[in-house]
């Protein structure tokens, strides 16, 4: 797969499979049909503690025992350097053309506290503070920043992370539903960036196509060139969801 032109420098996806085997089996077709370079996968299907049915033509980065976070990479031109491989978090450094990016895929089970995963993310953000960073994850956290829901306790913890490290949330709070299951609908998958101008993101959306999971796939396309558009940066200034908006030229 050759790199695209400057209108689409990198194509990424993020999907929580919710441990669904059918969704797991369908994933290779999604790669081929929609031409993704990289997909972050949470809560994937495994049998007897091992991942099964992932295609051999795609590079896979995940823990060898009951993994809950994975990076799948189909573009052979992307150089990959694994940094941290845990059950619930995978961090890799990739080189795309002449640029390096730190990419983090994280899954925070609703039955567990956020603390351990947040601490791992903090360690990586401190270590790679000057690098271009993309974070994909299901934090099982509610916030009026990334969805039409009141902020809960877990959402406030993610707010603190956003403010501490000057992260930018890419999600559109008015997007399509990210999760639709027996417990209702929700917006709990988040995409955040650091040291990447928002003008480089040419497209972000929640796809409405069938995934066979109760989550929808979140898509991001980025450009290799900078535009002259203004960047709108939104930061949470307290847990009551007041916002500070800065226009950067």
TrEMBL record:
Record GO terms (molecular function): catalytic activity
Domain Endonuclease/exonuclease/phosphatase, first and last residues per copy: 102-218
Coiled coil (UniProt feature): none
InterPro entries: Endo/exonu/phosph_ase_sf, Endo/exonuclease/phosphatase
Species per Swiss-Prot/TrEMBL record: Araneus ventricosus (Orbweaver spider)
Pfam families in UniProt: Exo_endo_phos_2
Superkingdom to which the source organism belongs: Eukaryota
Protein name: Endonuclease/exonuclease/phosphatase domain-containing protein
